[in-house]
Amino acid sequence: MPDSPRPHRLLPDCEEIHHLTMKAMDRPLGWTERVRMGGHLLICAACARFNAQMRLMRAAMHRMGQAGDEPPERPR
Predict the structure, then answer these.
(1) Which of 11, 12, 52, 69 is deepest in the core (most CB within 10 A)?
(2) Domain-by-domain residue ranges, the chain?
Protein backbone atom coordinates (compact mmCIF):
# COMPACT_ATOMS: atom_id res chain seq x y z
CA MET A 1 0.00 0.00 0.00
CA PRO A 2 1.56 3.34 -0.99
CA ASP A 3 2.18 5.96 1.64
CA SER A 4 -0.73 8.34 1.85
CA PRO A 5 0.05 11.99 2.54
CA ARG A 6 -0.29 13.01 6.16
CA PRO A 7 -2.91 15.56 7.06
CA HIS A 8 -1.42 19.03 7.35
CA ARG A 9 -0.73 19.95 10.96
CA LEU A 10 0.52 23.22 12.32
CA LEU A 11 3.61 21.61 13.82
CA PRO A 12 5.33 18.59 12.30
CA ASP A 13 6.14 15.49 14.33
CA CYS A 14 9.68 14.38 15.18
CA GLU A 15 9.90 12.09 12.14
CA GLU A 16 9.15 14.99 9.81
CA ILE A 17 11.70 17.19 11.62
CA HIS A 18 14.39 14.55 11.05
CA HIS A 19 13.42 14.48 7.37
CA LEU A 20 13.52 18.29 7.13
CA THR A 21 16.87 18.40 8.94
CA MET A 22 18.39 16.06 6.36
CA LYS A 23 16.71 17.91 3.50
CA ALA A 24 18.14 21.21 4.77
CA MET A 25 21.63 19.75 4.39
CA ASP A 26 21.07 19.47 0.63
CA ARG A 27 19.08 22.59 -0.12
CA PRO A 28 17.65 25.69 1.56
CA LEU A 29 14.23 25.06 3.10
CA GLY A 30 11.22 27.12 2.05
CA TRP A 31 9.82 29.66 4.48
CA THR A 32 6.90 27.43 5.54
CA GLU A 33 9.30 24.55 6.19
CA ARG A 34 11.56 26.83 8.24
CA VAL A 35 8.64 28.21 10.29
CA ARG A 36 7.19 24.77 10.99
CA MET A 37 10.61 23.37 11.85
CA GLY A 38 11.45 26.33 14.09
CA GLY A 39 8.19 25.93 16.00
CA HIS A 40 8.85 22.26 16.65
CA LEU A 41 12.48 22.87 17.66
CA LEU A 42 11.29 25.37 20.28
CA ILE A 43 9.28 22.70 22.08
CA CYS A 44 11.29 19.52 21.41
CA ALA A 45 14.75 19.35 23.00
CA ALA A 46 15.53 15.99 21.36
CA CYS A 47 14.97 17.32 17.83
CA ALA A 48 16.81 20.55 18.63
CA ARG A 49 19.78 18.45 19.77
CA PHE A 50 19.57 16.25 16.64
CA ASN A 51 19.45 19.33 14.40
CA ALA A 52 22.45 20.88 16.16
CA GLN A 53 24.43 17.63 15.89
CA MET A 54 23.74 17.37 12.15
CA ARG A 55 24.79 20.98 11.60
CA LEU A 56 27.98 20.40 13.60
CA MET A 57 28.77 17.25 11.65
CA ARG A 58 28.14 19.05 8.34
CA ALA A 59 30.45 21.92 9.36
CA ALA A 60 33.18 19.47 10.45
CA MET A 61 32.95 17.55 7.17
CA HIS A 62 33.14 20.82 5.26
CA ARG A 63 36.25 21.89 7.20
CA MET A 64 37.81 18.47 6.66
CA GLY A 65 37.32 18.81 2.92
CA GLN A 66 39.03 22.20 2.94
CA ALA A 67 42.02 21.00 4.96
CA GLY A 68 43.71 19.71 1.84
CA ASP A 69 42.76 18.54 -1.59
CA GLU A 70 45.10 15.57 -1.47
CA PRO A 71 44.32 12.55 0.71
CA PRO A 72 46.88 11.79 3.44
CA GLU A 73 49.82 9.67 2.34
CA ARG A 74 49.64 5.98 3.24
CA PRO A 75 52.50 4.50 5.28
CA ARG A 76 54.64 2.05 3.30
Answers:
(1) 12
(2) 14-65
